[in-house]
Specification:
The protein is an alpha+beta fold. Helix 6 packs antiparallel against helix 7 and helix 6 packs across helix 10. It folds into 2 domains: 92 residues, Phosphorylase Kinase, domain 1; 188 residues, Aminoglycoside phosphotransferase (APH), C-terminal lobe (Aminoglycoside 3'-phosphotransferase, Chain: A, domain 2, Alpha-Beta Complex). The two termini are 19 Å apart. The chain has a 5-stranded antiparallel sheet with strand order 1-2-3-5-4, sandwiched between helices. A 3-stranded antiparallel sheet has the order 6-8-9, with no helix packed on it. A two-stranded antiparallel sheet has the order 7-10. A hairpin with a 2-residue loop joins strand 8 and strand 9. The chain is globular.
Length: 299
Amino acid sequence: MATGKVTDVCPAIDAALVRRLVDAQFPQWAELSLELVDPAGSDHVIFRMGEGLSVRLPRHAGAIGQARKESEWLPRLAPHLPLAVPAPVAVGEPGFGYPWPWAVSRWLDGEVATVEALGDSSEAAVELAGFLTALQRCRPAEISALGAPEDLTARPLVARDRDTRAAIAEVDGPFDRAAMTELWEAALSAPAWDGPPVWFHGDFHTGNLLTVDGRLSAVIDFGELGIGDPACDLTIAFTLMSARSRAVFRTALGVDDATWIRGRGWALATGLNAYTHYAAVDPRVAAQTTRQITEALIG
């Protein structure tokens, strides 16, 4: 659900800076090698450190809360989840001109999931439904007693209305404006989530899934982790799955009609956001988001 733009002012991040930050703050790792991970996504620059660690530095201000959020919550959630998630090791502080907190985590082996490998897999669809079910069942005592902290509070879908309508107008031509508008208005008018607030990943798409030997192994990038309506996590059904595996996923997760249409709305809105901000400069993003928007329209 991230909304960073390619026009954001971003600090320069290179191996020399990361080396200085690590050596100054965590001298126990001063002898470990650093290897740039590319591509690493739009929110972070990532280095593999030695064999067993990764260093993640936010590229823009929209991602600066992730290091501390993951450090606080993932160790509590991980024991209840059926797939691996990042294991935070340390949170670094600003330094040497770099302005934001940054993270050191255990390295997770794996390849990014692809539509070609898993898009039509009923087994993967059931596994992903199982992951979301397990995540939604987690009930940390602190949350139940105190309510969700501000950084975990969900933004409603309607908060994206102005930007999404502007994006619909902008991409009229490559996509069907009337169909997008009809879907968007249906998603906004669907009944709201009436269940208890539950955990959601918040950025649950193909790029945040890892595989080993062709099977799902891990879910990464919990910067948008929050509590509220789980419809946003249905985005995975439109970034990864075929119509057939999507039906299996929906049945396994037990999604009602209102939540499904809100989920299609989330997929449309986030797909349009990424398409309008990144597609012109990144053919990989253009292909991924074109599929996401198209599949959301299909349903």
